[in-house]
Write a structure and sequence with these properties.
This protein is mainly α. It is built from eight helices and two strands, in the order ββαααααααα.
Length: 164
């Protein structure tokens, strides 16, 4: 398998040869973060910019470079500015999200996928109560659970209990 090299300038302006350009990787990472925060699937992104799922994945990984027109279309489609994708480029090493940040992105994506606003509100109440329970101690756990339990189950829930 042949490896592809790309010639380009490094952060100091010197000509260097690398397998993947740092800028392409940075733009791809920012694209992935933005897409996940919006709860958009990779296929939805691919449809937005008119490429295949596999090509969109290569853009996110920085293996292929987004053309200027495609990057502009992505920014417009996701409701942002092109500058967002270049923010922080060259100022420090590439951002590596922590485990907690990755979990937060996944939580955001899952939360946005819940179609029922009452269930989203119930989930917010639950997390707020769990956080309060951690701060006040386990002895007040019963009071916290009572605060979260809905008085009336959602009308569309045939099982009688609330499933989140």
């Amino acid at each position: 398998m042949a490896t592809r090299t790309a010639a380009g300038l490094d952060n100091a302006g010197n000509l260097s040869r690398r397998r993947v350009q740092d800028a392409d990787r940075h733009v791809g990472l920012r694209l992935r973060q933005h897409r996940i925060m919006l709860g958009m699937t990779l296929q939805q992104l691919a449809d937005l910019i008119g490429v295949t799922h596999h090509q969109a994945r290569k853009y996110e990984k920085g293996l292929h470079r987004l053309a200027a027109g495609q990057l502009w279309r992505v920014a417009q489609g996701l409701g942002g500015d092109v500058e967002y994708y270049f923010a922080g480029l060259g100022s420090k090493p590439a951002f590596k999200p922590t485990r907690q940040q990755r979990l937060l992105l996944e939580l955001t994506r899952s939360f946005l996928a819940i179609p029922d606003p009452r269930r989203r509100a119930a989930l917010c109440d639950l997390t707020r109560t769990l956080a309060a329970t951690e701060r006040t101690g386990e002895d007040q756990h019963a009071a916290a659970v009572a605060a979260v339990a809905p008085a009336d189950p959602p009308a569309d829930d045939a099982g009688g209990g609330m499933r989140i």
